[in-house]
Design goal:
Helix content is 62%, strand content 0%. The protein has 13 helices and no strands. Helix 5 runs parallel beside helix 8. The N and C termini lie far apart (104 Å). The mean pLDDT is 85.
């Protein structure tokens, strides 16, 4: 008897694809980001990640820019917000900012979203409502605290942008920050350039070459946050 031809697989026997939703599209975008970087996050690639066509995504996101904003807010939403304790507002604010930076650094490149456009998505608004509340709890005048939120947002964006630009080979969160610093030093040989400065032309830089290139990324981040908080609290003013 001739061999029985193989039966075609019924579509009903194939694993069902998970239903599309805004959350599924955002999660797929974050997977593409972590694997290939922010510039690789296109509607076509995200659709391929979900085993569907790009047209299917437009039901949930209107365009790539909206997808990036939703991805950014999804990352921000993972950061727990502290219950404000006025007596500990400084430590709470410093700890919160560190957590935000590390969360964004776990998705290198996504921090750029806050630099190109002022975020107004729910998690970002929740975050900065808490940041503003902490500043006010510390006695920072309301106008100064409001402007301070802008400075803090710019600092977060700049620090996380550097991590995305460096594209360290491994690590995320705290490790990504150190990886970016190491990659920057290796790429442009900062130590060599500083060592070659002419003391007659750049006396202060030449004398501080070791200090400029020294220190772990975590300490640099802590200093930036300390300066921001201290300045907003008025400690930099005299008289």
């Amino acid at each position: 008897m001739p061999p029985t031809p193989p039966r075609s697989r019924s579509t009903r026997s194939r694993p069902a694809k998970p239903p599309l939703s805004e959350a599924a599209v955002v999660d797929a975008g974050l997977r593409v980001l972590r694997r290939e970087g922010l510039d690789a996050v296109t509607m076509r690639k995200v659709a391929a990640e979900l085993d569907t066509g790009p047209a299917s995504l437009y039901v949930y996101v209107s365009q790539r820019d909206e997808l990036l904003r939703l991805m950014h807010d999804s990352v921000i939403a993972t950061v727990p917000l502290p219950v404000i304790e006025p007596a500990h507002w400084r430590d709470q604010l410093a700890g919160l900012l560190v957590e935000v930076v590390h969360a964004l650094n776990a998705h290198p490149g996504i921090g750029r979203v806050s630099l190109g456009d002022i975020p107004t998505a729910p998690a970002w608004l929740d975050l900065f409502d808490r940041i503003l509340g902490l500043l006010l709890a510390g006695g920072v005048p309301r106008q100064r605290a409001a402007w301070g939120c802008d400075l803090i947002a710019l600092h977060i964006g700049a620090v996380t942008y550097e991590v995305g630009a460096a594209d360290p080979a491994a690590g995320d969160g705290p490790d990504a920050l150190q990886g970016a610093l190491d990659a920057r030093h290796e790429r442009i040989s900062i130590e060599e350039r500083l060592a070659g400065l002419d003391p007659a032309r750049h006396p202060h830089l030449a004398a501080s070459a070791a200090e400029l290139a020294a220190g772990p990324a975590a300490a640099r981040l802590a200093l930036g946050i300390e300066v921001l908080i201290g300045g907003l609290a008025g400690e930099s003013r005299e008289g």
